[in-house]
Amino acid sequence: MQMLYNSENFVIVQIDVAPAGQPGEAASAHRGGYEIVDKSARKEIYIEGAMAQSFRQGVDALIEKSPTQEEFDEYLGRFSALMQQPVVLH
To answer: With 0-12 CB in 10 A as exposed, 13-18 as middle and 19+ as buried, what is 18?
Structure first.
């Protein structure tokens, strides 16, 4: 798990999951995704697979333009409508 972004409004954590090892299984069979937390709405989403790849491509394209924090948060705000899981602290 690695925190990739942390602003006043959002947090992005990259999660890499190793497969339940079978003998002889390739190390490249790792999977994982991204957890995006909207701090103000107190909701989060975990994305993986094709959606995670699309998210990463969008982030990479945005980074090429040297975005401001507001521009980056605006991009992340597009995912807020998908967030259904409440953030619960314990």
So the answer is: exposed
